[in-house]
Amino acid sequence: MITIIESGTDKTCNAPETGGSQNADIHGKAIQTCCDKLLEGLDPILKEEKDWKKAVMKAFHQKVSLQASEHIRRLCINEITQGKNVDAHFDNGKNSGVLARLPLVIPIIHAVPDFLPNPFMFFRIERRQYGIPEDSPTYHTSGAACVLLEIDCRTGEHKLLSVDIVLDVGRSLNPAIDIGQIEGAFMQCYGNMTCEELTWDKNGKLVQDSLYKYKIPTPAMTPRRFRVKLLKESNTFAEQVYSSKGVGEPPLMLGVTTFSSLRYAITARRQDLGLSDFIEISAPLTASKIVSLCNP
């Protein structure tokens, strides 16, 4: 049984955040490694005693360690850009990770490549074993989205009718959480593309200086048909946590499809009016922008 406690400096000093798609990749890898250590010590006893509770009690009486800790090192930016090898000491200014208890701390160290697209998802992976170049990321997360929407050319309002998404997350650790993450990321980008506008007055003061003025996505903007599927056939690697992939930021970019769809709708409206000149269409496409573009 694994007990998960809340994050805090009284449990782990300099604990990293859980964002950046690193929760499963970094924290999960530390948990997985700790479990492997515990099983390594319990394995001889489990061969003789099949009952789990009795085996653990027997290990306790034999003074077999029933606790483990692991430090998964997260590389800092200057180490990555300079392509330096990493020292094996623990430096509070350069390291963060998951640390259970103090008796055993084993940093996982790797020679840093000259270029690394996402430093916060990087830990030791035997790249050569899987034919991965040393200067490439461990994996890529990709997906596709198809949206259907309609606009009212008189008011500039639009309605997102349906969204279909397929995303490669490897072998999902928890499909319900991953699908919820994908839906939330899509809606966040949808807001960025359509309603979250920042403008300044002639004195340089921000106009949208309150939540009343800064328009964020609401439940009413959620499409009536919102279907998300996780790709079944995935090109992933066994050294990931159960062959999973991070699903933090990747689905965010799929929300750009709403901007593209609005752009096509506006272009079609202008063609109906006999207008074919080039126009610059920039996000966010608010109702006022859509009205002015559809009715020049």
UniProtKB/TrEMBL annotation:
Superkingdom: Eukaryota
Annotated spans, Disordered: 1-24
Entry GO MF terms: iron ion binding; oxidoreductase activity
Matches recorded under Gene3D superfamilies: Aldehyde oxidase/xanthine dehydrogenase, molybdopterin binding domain (3.30.365.10)
Domain Aldehyde oxidase/xanthine dehydrogenase second molybdopterin binding residues, every copy: 2-74, 135-223
Name of the protein this chain belongs to: Aldehyde oxidase/xanthine dehydrogenase second molybdopterin binding domain-containing protein
Organism, as annotated: Ancylostoma ceylanicum
